[in-house]
């Protein structure tokens, strides 16, 4: 067993830093090919690529204008609600999450405490903070679909958020020149939100999004996005042994979640919560140390080499890698609440709930068992005191394959091309 600090340093050096470097190199090369000088790295996943990009650009004497843009799903979806038909806006408000409560939905439209109380007053058997089953989640959605106050609050806050977002974007130069946005990716909805907001401000020029990976394509032409590790159309083998939650945790940032934008004394500022990444200082120190050591070397890491490292660490992590990653806390909620360690040590009973026949039984019989929240199942299996771990990994692999197949067949996302 490694000393914790040694385990962190070793993991950062052999996995995190080289992967971030290779991704950043791809982003810079893409900008060069497109002949676009300006790149906006979106907070928070874009922070370390932004730091790496500035260092690489300086070493190579590139004329790349690297900028850091405060953003989040919460901050960019709110301005968009008022630009969508009510039924589409409602779908977006009720987008999937493991943290299903009425309060989570009302936070997404930035309802005040008084408004929450009024909106919940006519709902029986559902508390504001009560965890909801999928059926109860759908019932709540159906109730709000005919609630005038819900849409009034949504549209009022959306309109104010749109004005502030446009002010911040103009101030940061998004209306001045062509640009690329850099983000971790997965569905491209951030790019779709940005395009909606910019169009509302009178800018019709489409700009490119460059991502680490994409499970789904942004709802624009194929020429407006690029992905480093996998595309929607392929890369099944890479996707099967990949965990996007862990990748997001690797992309550390000193910033809290961007809640929106505020105007003060003729300038716009990001409004962020005060929840900081608890392991940022240590990871950032070793990332910068690795980057400095690589300054005098010609670093080159192919996608296939990255694939070998990522498959190993994400599918079957070693002990020192688990020591590093169990410091990482993650939440899938837009408001960043209810964070928990990405490495969860499972009991035998908990692990069995993730076996294929148990999952299928829950689907068939619609039985909502109290399944533990696990954001990196392969890592949690590796960290747990289980016998025959290969059986649990194999079951998880098959389920991931079925999930990806379902994803390809499901209906088009909320920002479908037909609406543009």
What does the model show?
It contains 18 helices and 9 strands. Helix 1 crosses helix 14 (319-325) and helix 3 crosses helix 9 (189-200). The protein is an alpha/beta fold and 420 residues long. The strands form 3 sheets. Strands 2-1-3-4-5 form a 5-stranded parallel beta sheet, sandwiched between helices. Strands 6-7 form a two-stranded antiparallel sheet. Strands 8-9 form a two-stranded antiparallel ribbon. The protein has helices at 4-34, 47-60, 73-81, 86-93, 102-108, 113-120, 134-144, 148-171, 189-200, 236-240, 244-250, 280-293, 303-315, 319-325, 348-352, 356-365, 377-383, 389-409; strands at residues 38-42, 65-69, 179-186, 208-214, 225-230, 258-264, 267-272, 329-330, 340-341. It is globular. The chain has one domain (11-318).
Major β-sheet annotation:
5 strands, parallel
Strand content: 5-15%
Shape: globular
Which structural class do you get from the secondary structure elements?
alpha/beta
> Quick check: average pLDDT?
88
Counting H and I runs of at least 4 residues, what is the number of helices?
18
Residue share in helices?
A: 40-55%
Number of strands: 9
Measured distance between first and last alpha carbons:
55 Å
How many distinct domains? 1
- Give the helices and strands as they follow along the chain: HEHEHHHHHHEHEEHHEEHHHEEHHHH
What is Rg? 22 Å
Largest beta sheet: strand ordering: 2-1-3-4-5
Ranges with pLDDT <50 over ≥5 residues?
A: 411-420
């Amino acid at each position: 067993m490694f000393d914790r600090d040694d385990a962190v340093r070793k993991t950062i050096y052999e996995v995190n830093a080289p992967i971030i470097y290779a991704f950043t190199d791809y982003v810079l090369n893409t900008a060069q090919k497109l002949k676009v000088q300006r790149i906006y790295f979106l907070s928070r996943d874009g922070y370390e690529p932004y730091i790496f990009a500035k260092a690489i650009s300086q070493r190579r004497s590139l004329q790349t204008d690297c900028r850091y843009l405060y953003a989040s799903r919460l901050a960019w979806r709110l301005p968009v609600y008022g630009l969508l038909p009510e039924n589409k806006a409602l779908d977006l408000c009720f987008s999937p999450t493991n943290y299903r409560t009425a309060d989570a939905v009302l936070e997404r439209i930035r309802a005040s405490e008084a408004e929450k109380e009024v909106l919940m007053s006519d709902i029986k058997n559902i508390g504001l903070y009560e965890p909801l089953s999928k059926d109860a989640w759908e019932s709540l959605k159906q109730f709000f679909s005919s609630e005038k106050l819900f849409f009034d609050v949504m549209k009022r806050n959306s309109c104010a958020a749109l004005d502030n977002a446009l002010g911040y974007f103009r101030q940061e130069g998004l209306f001045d020149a062509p640009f690329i946005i850099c983000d971790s990716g997965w569905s491209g909805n951030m790019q779709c939100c940005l395009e909606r907001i910019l169009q509302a401000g009178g800018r019709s020029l489409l700009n490119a999004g460059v991502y680490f990976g994409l499970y789904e394509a942004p709802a624009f032409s194929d020429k407006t996005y690029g992905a480093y590790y996998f595309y929607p159309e392929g890369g099944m083998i890479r996707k099967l042994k990949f965990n996007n939650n862990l990748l997001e945790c690797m992309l550390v940032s000193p910033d809290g979640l961007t809640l929106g934008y505020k105007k003060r004394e003729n300038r716009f500022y990001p409004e962020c919560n005060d929840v900081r990444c608890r392991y940022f200082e240590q990871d950032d120190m070793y990332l910068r140390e690795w980057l400095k050591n690589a300054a005098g070397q010609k670093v080159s890491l192919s996608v296939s080499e990255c694939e070998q490292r990522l498959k190993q660490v994400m599918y079957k992590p070693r002990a020192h890698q688990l020591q590093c990653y169990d410091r990482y806390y993650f939440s899938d909620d837009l408001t960043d609440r209810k964070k928990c360690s990405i490495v969860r040590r499972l009991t035998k009973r908990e692990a069995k709930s993730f076996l294929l026949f148990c999952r299928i039984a829950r689907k068939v019989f619609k039985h909502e068992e109290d399944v533990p929240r696990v954001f990196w199942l392969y890592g949690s299996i590796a960290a747990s005191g289980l016998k025959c771990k290969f059986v649990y990994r194999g079951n998880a692999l098959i389920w991931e394959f079925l999930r990806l197949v379902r994803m390809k067949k499901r209906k088009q996302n909320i920002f479908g091309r037909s609406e543009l």
